[in-house]
Design goal:
- It is built from 29 helices and 23 strands.
- The chain is globular.
- Strand 6, helix 12 and strand 7 form a beta-alpha-beta unit.
- It is α/β, with parallel strands linked by helices.
Length: about 675
């Protein structure tokens, strides 16, 4: 039976599936049959007599766990399974462990797991000044990097982080007092128990003699430490992943876990799955060229099993409107030839880029769906702006005013809003009329002195902007942001970049609207977008639009990727990681099966105005646009690296351009510059 299990595997997959004892790294390239390999290995272990209850397989999502369970169990003779192997997410494993061993921490096992909303409410009750999303994010980072509240307090230098550490300490005390467990605790507490009780760690390791981990490149420091404890008594850890698809550094994933796996676990066997069953040779060739520019990688090359395929198209457009028209023309032609809409997708690095696409598709009557996200005008930050603008056109709109009276935060909480709402119903006046017509002392009897002053300032700001709107719509837009600092309210929050990009896109769009329609006013604009954002149920198949992050694990026969401009893809500037951006490019390109189109524009709305842009370095790095490029990162070289030539001696790399399968390096040998192929030099 075991031979039949392996018969459908290629040579590399078979080597991985047959490996039994010792640590194993399955380096699985995109489209290389990763899930097939790991599920076959699970079935193989059971088929040769290994006790299923001694096998633990960990995933990141319930969906992945369910798929792997179904596929593995379909290969196994039911007679071989007395107790099924445990196949679940990291967090589900943590929950099961805590149910049995919570007493090790002197806590009862009748703990309650809180969700993200519960967590936010608890944290908000502790601190109302600091942005809740920032507190949630930072506390999660502390837990996943094993930093206690005491350590966070002692390490904090800036006042903000001293405050965050203080909230963290109070939050932990609240959880402990009420026997609550948050999502991060499902990993942290099992680790603390295993660290504290070495005997239990060894018993647990003895119980799970064979451990497998899916998507290992996405593990964080805490997950790595937990795995070390689970392997206390053996080295039978098999991990599968792809360092070239590590794209979640922003949420704590540590690429070093997979890069250093062979150092962490002695005697590791490495098996590379490089045969790609998804994409044409042409697509794979350009994906390989792009990712070779990264230095922090283990190194592998996707090899196609299909035909060469059509060339990749690269569209150059003046602006996003022309870009959208080109995509729509291409997609209409595909649909007219019988291509299914579900076989077509558009990807983007920055979510704000969906706005022009959505409007273009609505006008063209093309069905689309936003996968893993929400439509532009449904995003909270955009709905807030729309509510602000509705107040400026109709101050008596209670619904809109209640939405934004505390955005950005002004200390006007739900209790105050409820009091204003009750007074509105009592007096038959709108909330804004109450704020406007009551003097400060009278208003204070409703909401208190401090809130009365705040609301009076808010009212004066609205009235000033209403007056400015009648004089200059463009000047009004500048003054609106200066007055309310709405965009700046998303500084220092986890998803702030995306939210600010959406705000910038909205400001830019309204500016363009007024330029194109100088005779129309703000109310006309609001009516127009209300029609555009109306939810229409699509009864037929729909074209998929999504971020590159949301596309991981998916594949499409016809793929379009937009926004290949510096600043948009790759995102550049402080805090950006060019290697992770490049991995995102690699992930995006390898989603394509048959046809791929990349697009860049010369200008987009950016930060509320139209900005000139330069095309992405990724277009040249992937060999799609000819020309030399400065090496930032390369699998073998980077700018400034020392190299040795047999004749010219030692020199420093300055730049390179693609030359077939090699690179032509420009090297400075003690003041003499020479162009030499990279295969003729050796890195020092």
């Amino acid at each position: 039976m075991s031979e039949n299990l392996l018969s459908s595997l290629n040579d590399s997959q078979k080597i991985a599936a047959e490996h039994i004892d010792g640590s194993l790294l399955i380096l699985a390239g995109a489209g290389s049959g990763k899930t097939k390999t790991i599920t076959t290995r699970l079935a193989y272990l059971i088929s040769i007599g290994i006790d299923p209850s001694s096998i633990l397989t960990l995933t990141f999502t319930n969906k992945a766990a369910a798929e792997m369970r179904e596929r593995a169990f379909s290969m196994i003779n039911p007679e071989h399974i007395n107790t099924p192997p445990l196949l679940c997410t990291f967090h589900k494993f943590g929950l099961l462990f805590l149910k049995f061993h919570m007493s090790e921490l002197d806590r009862k096992n009748n703990f309650i797991i809180i969700d993200t909303d519960d967590k936010k409410r608890i944290i908000k009750s502790i601190d109302k000044e600091i942005t809740t999303s920032l507190l949630v994010s930072e506390i999660s980072k502390y837990k996943n990097t094993l930093i206690s509240p005491e350590e966070a307090k002692s390490a904090a230098q800036l006042k903000l982080y001293q405050q965050i550490a203080d909230v963290y300490e109070k939050y932990q005390a609240y959880l402990l007092k009420n026997n609550l467990v948050d999502f991060d605790d499902l990993l942290l507490l099992p680790y603390e128990i295993l660290k504290k009780n070495e005997k239990l760690a060894q018993q647990t390791s003895d119980k799970y003699q064979y451990i497998m981990v899916d998507e290992y490149q996405d593990t964080n420091e805490l997950q790595y430490k937990l795995l070390r404890k689970l392997c206390s008594n053996h080295n039978n850890l098999c991990v599968v992943g792809d360092d070239d698809q590590s794209i979640y550094g922003w949420r704590g994933a540590t690429i070093k876990n997979i890069l250093n796996f062979s150092e962490h676990f002695e005697g590791t066997t490495v098996v590379k799955l490089e045969s790609n069953y998804r994409s044409t040779d042409t697509i794979l060739d350009h994906a390989n060229q792009l990712i070779e520019h990264n230095r922090d990688r283990l190194g592998k090359k996707l090899v196609g099993t299909r035909a060469k395929g059509d060339s990749i198209k690269v569209y150059e457009s003046h602006d996003e409107n022309e870009e959208t028209r080109k995509l729509i023309d291409d997609i209409k032609k595909l649909l007219d030839t019988g291509v299914s809409a579900r076989d077509v997708a558009i990807l983007f690095r920055v979510n704000a880029l969906s706005r022009s696409l959505e409007e273009g598709f609505n006008r063209a009557g093309l069905n689309y769906k936003l996968v893993g996200g929400m439509k532009f005008y449904e995003r909270a930050e955009i709905k807030d702006l729309i509510a602000y603008f509705r107040i400026l056109t109709n101050a008596n709109d209670n619904f809109s005013l209640k939405r934004i009276v505390n955005k950005p935060k002004r200390g006007i909480g739900k209790t105050t809003i409820d009091k204003l709402d009750a007074k509105s119903q009592e007096t038959k006046k709108s909330i804004f009329e109450i704020i406007q017509t009551f003097d400060a002392d009278e208003l204070a009897t409703v909401v208190g002195k401090k809130n009365s002053r705040t609301l009076k300032v808010f009212e004066a700001s609205v009235m000033d902007l209403k007056e400015l709107l009648t004089k200059s719509k463009m000047q009004f837009l500048d003054s609106f942001e200066e007055t309310f600092d709405y965009r700046a309210s998303y500084d220092n929050v986890p998803d702030g970049f995306d939210r600010q990009a959406n705000v910038d896109e909205f400001y830019g769009y309204i500016r363009d609207y007024f330029k194109q329609n100088p005779h129309l006013d703000l109310k006309d604009f609001l009516n127009e977008i209300a029609l555009e954002s109306e939810n229409e149920e699509y009864h037929n198949e729909a074209i998929s639009m999504m971020s590159i992050h949301a596309s991981k694990g998916l594949e499409f026969k016809n793929l379009f990727i937009i926004g290949f401009e510096e600043g948009f893809f790759p995102i550049t500037g402080d805090g950006s990681d060019i290697e992770e951006e490049r991995r995102l490019g690699y992930v995006a390109i390898t989603r394509a099966m048959d046809n791929l189109t990349l697009s860049f524009v010369h200008s987009r709305f950016y930060k509320g105005k139209r900005a000139s842009l330069t095309k992405s370095r990724f277009l040249s790095e992937s060999g799609l646009i000819k020309g030399c490029l400065t090496i930032e990162k390369h699998s073998s070289y980077k700018k400034g690296d020392l190299v040795q030539h047999k004749i010219f001696g030692m020199g420093r790399v300055q730049k390179a351009c693609k030359a077939g399968k090699d690179y032509k390096l420009t090297i400075n040998f003690g003041g003499s510059r020479r162009d030499i192929l990279s295969s003729f030099v050796e890195k020092m």
